């Protein structure tokens, strides 16, 4: 009960302080924008608006360009788990927008977590220092917990096996940019769907669109969890499981490959089994060649061996551009959260 009242007070304060326009607000399961915690907190309209702003920023703010819109803001990247893309693209976005960045890139070892400080206490403390916190944590649900105690907006950079909403935003942005739409597309998700948070967030986000079809390509040990399948059923999304990657490749508009998350195996035996099954679904030149002409191959990265390097030359390989799009999606979010009037101005101008 305490948390609820604290949250309402904080959200009211944020609304007052940043003059957040109502239309940017989304709510799901007690979590509101400007916190970015769950993929399902965004409405279709919010998504279109974020994609429009990211598209404008992609044209305006490439390498070598900087603006001062976020001057005066300090952004903290607090990462209890390793990252290359999520942390550095948030930091790049912050620098290009004129904010200053503080980073704790190995917070599990080099913050007071090692002395037993709870994540919630750490968040309370850093909220007095930073205007926005991007956090990655090994515990599922940690971002929501942080959002409920936090005075500064929280961006979930990945919480255990839970979610990775900014990854889903950049994924769907990339799909929308390539096809000019998301409605009516067939997306095959391949690999460790059980332990991967990116595919969970992606499935939630795709369910906001019309007539999307999802194919889950994984062995039983790595199949998508039932809560996601139930969510898709409840939202009228067609989905099926498929073991044969070649069959899925021949019909999908998007093949979304993922890595087997060996580090999340609970026993040595499970780890060994995952290593074995990871060899079953590999994107190579032959499989890529079966895909429709205008289809794309995506991957949240890092990849290990599930996409052969030879596929990088294929016109359908989209994963490096997809990763770059993360900078523009994160620029759009930072601007909407910390300088909404600038976001409005850019959206009205273009
Ligand atoms: N896609 C992704 O989350 O990559 P990192 O782990 O490098 O941040």
Brief digest:
This protein is an alpha/beta fold and 350 residues long.
Structure, described:
- With 350 residues, the chain is an alpha/beta fold.
- It folds into 2 domains: 2-163 and 325-342, Rossmann fold (3-Layer(aba) Sandwich); 165-323, Rossmann fold, CATH 3.40.50.
- It contains 14 helices and 11 strands.
- It has helices at 2-18, 44-60, 85-96, 107-110, 119-127, 142-149, 165-179, 197-206, 226-234, 245-251, 268-277, 285-290, 319-338, 340-349; strands at residues 27-28, 31-32, 74-79, 100-104, 132-137, 154-159, 186-190, 213-217, 238-242, 254-257, 296-298.
- The strands form 3 sheets. The chain has a 5-stranded parallel sheet with strand order 9-8-7-10-11, sandwiched between helices.
- Helix 3 packs across helix 13, helix 7 crosses helix 8 and helix 7 packs across helix 13 (319-338).
- The longest helix is centred in the C-terminal third of the chain and has 20 residues, at 319-338.
- The radius of gyration is 20 Å and the shape is globular.
- The termini are far apart.
- The structure holds phosphoric acid mono(formamide)ester.
- Phosphoric acid mono(formamide)ester is lined by residues 83-86, 158, 164, 167, 300-302.
- Phosphoric acid mono(formamide)ester binds at residues 83-86, 158, 164, 167, 300-302.
